[in-house]
Amino acid sequence: MIELRHLTKSYGKGTHITTALNELDLSVEKGEIFGVIGHSGAGKSTLIRCINLLERPTSGEVWVDGVNLTALNTKALQTERRKIGMIFQHFNLLSSATVYDNIAFPLRLIHTSKSSIEKKVNELLALVGLQDHSDKYPAQLSGGQKQRVGIARALASEPEVLLCDEATSALDPQTTDSILKLLLDINKRFNLTIVLITHEMHVIQSICDRVAVIHQGGIVEQGAVTDVFLKP
Ligand code: ADP
Ligand code: ADP
User: Fold this and answer.
1) Cα 224 → chain centroid
2) Fewer beta carbons within 10 angstroms: which end of the chain, N or C?
């Protein structure tokens, strides 16, 4: 479902170049939950932002669902990006919009009819357990509820892939577990491919099928979570 080929990303120029990713190769299968773990500065955030081209790689290719995203023009990329949802550490909700309008936002962008939006948003509210909160504003919600809105918004376009950028790092342990459980439910229900980055081993061990360890912009180890972390 996702293939990164010889991906390199450098920031800066001249004598001030930082190479965040160095000829990195990675492949993620359809329907799996794939975790990337590493210390701060290892390149996790750059890696996940390259998958939907929020960050343009310096060289290399990004393939999602059989399409080489790095070869597309802006318009074609916009269409392909609907297959890729994303959630963030700090939720990135619109603070002046209600829960309902936050979730409806991506559907309005693609001119979905009002009745289809209403049906879809109500389905998504039920999916994430926020039926009774649709008229609230983000400031009236807990961290876990905000991330549920983020998840519902990311799923509005029925993506094939969900990218999670430190999605539970701002949450307490109990809330983290409830969000991880929701991600696992969604993964099973829609056969949704999930890629998550984290610095927390617990997140990897509780829901990931496979894991890659990233260090200085390269993958130093990868495999089934049980093989990589639970060896005697
Ligand atoms: P992580 O998410 O694992 O903490 P990042 O991908 O954020 O790692 O960073 C990888 C490296 O790239 C670090 O050395 C970081 O300082 C550098 N870096 C990240 N973003 C930028 C940027 N916008 N400009 C310059 N350097 C950056
Ligand atoms: P069907 O093939 O009958 O549509 P699905 O299990 O694919 O069955 O979908 C059931 C419901 O879930 C539908 O309302 C569909 O719009 C929604 N759905 C399917 N895939 C996703 C997804 N990746 N994200 C969010 N909603 C989805």
Assistant:
1) 20
2) C
Q: 159: Cβ below 6 Å to ligand 2?
A: yes
**Does the pLDDT of residue 157 top 80, yes or no?**
yes
Q: Which atom of ligand 2 is nearest to the CA of 190?
A: 20
174 exposed, middle or buried (CB, 10 Å; 0-12, 13-18, 19+)? exposed
ipTM of the complex: 0.72
Ligand nearest to the CA of 85: 2
